[in-house]
Amino acid sequence: MKINKFVIILLLIVGAGAVSWTTYLKEFNEEDTVSIHSFPKEINGWVSEELPITEDEYAILETRNVFTRKYTGPKGQIVYFFTVYSQYNRKVAHPPEVCYTGSGIKVVSNTVDAIPIPEHNVTIKAHKLRLERRQLKQVAYYWFKVGDSFTPSYWQQQLRIAIKNLLGRPEGSALIRVSAVYNDDDQQAVEDIKEFTRLVLPAIYKHLP
Question: Residue 26: what pLDDT?
């Protein structure tokens, strides 16, 4: 009995897809060859201070390719820059709302806002969170990076990682968060976040490949 060539080809494609998908879903123990700790500590007049990360936080993130820094601008602006990156472990970059809620921080609002960066012909769409804990108010922008692309969606990030892996062109992924404290009006905090993001974008491309 002759087997239809189309059926054979289809079976081969399905088999290859299953192998690729299994590879995508399995746990990767391979260590990153890129260290993001070389990320610039001074950017266009903004100087930074390294903030501590606990061993429990390292364990949750499943990597030490992570840092939190306080950057102070030339006019006294202050933003907090957090990023976690991995070349192989797609789980390191997850939405931070769960962590906020677990640590007693209230998410007052969660919307999507744009950060235009015309000099690089880029507009970053990011989640904009208003956060409160007792008397402290904070606004935080976060987004995901896969290769050279950005997305505010965790699921779009996961889909892009999957597609890259299935095509045999895996790329690293990162969660990027920039936040600032405010009192009654978050307008100045938002402006500081967007200015810092505009200045830090070339370093993001270079150090979070």
Answer: 44
